[in-house]
């Protein structure tokens, strides 16, 4: 990590950003596996890139957290925020629908018929 600091001891943000760009792609690919095919990888990469830029700007080494740990949180958060902004259904409605579907799945074998 020493190569990321200038002679004055200041973190070189451009070098930091360049070094961690592959992390954005890695996280985007990990997230894309769990998403519908309609979600474009490029959209995730763009949002993740913004998250990385945000991480580079806001990172404080004095907090004791490794940059990679901090950056992954910011990158994934930016990607999830982008996905949420495109969805008109609130998260609570999706959660309730998932719980109802799970309850119906548990009841069908018990009742021996489709749950209504």
Would you kindly provide a written description of the structure presented here, covering whatever features stand out?
GO terms for molecular function: DNA binding; sigma factor activity. One of its GO terms (biological process) is DNA-templated transcription initiation. The protein is mostly helical and 116 residues long. The protein has a single domain (2-88), classed as RNA polymerase sigma factor, region 2, helix turn helix motif (Rna Polymerase Sigma Factor, Chain: A, Orthogonal Bundle). Helix content is 68%, strand content 0%. It has four helices and no strands. The protein has helices spanning 13-32, 41-58, 67-86, 91-111. It starts with 12 loop residues before the first helix and ends in a 5-residue tail after the last helix.
CATH H-level name... which superfamily? RNA polymerase sigma factor, region 2, helix turn helix motif
CATH architecture: Orthogonal Bundle
The total domain count is 1
Return the average pLDDT rounded to an integer.
88
> Could you say which structural class the secondary elements and strand pairing correspond to?
mainly alpha
| Overall number of strands | 0
**Would you list the SSEs in sequence order as H and E?**
HHHH
Instruction: Indicate the low-confidence ranges by residue numbers.
Output: none
Helix content percent band:
55-70%
CATH fold field value = Rna Polymerase Sigma Factor, Chain: A
Total number of helices: 4
Distance between the termini: 59 Å
Strand content: under 5%
Gyration radius, to the nearest Å?
Answer: 20 Å
| Major β-sheet annotation | none
CATH class: Mainly Alpha
| Molecular shape | elongated
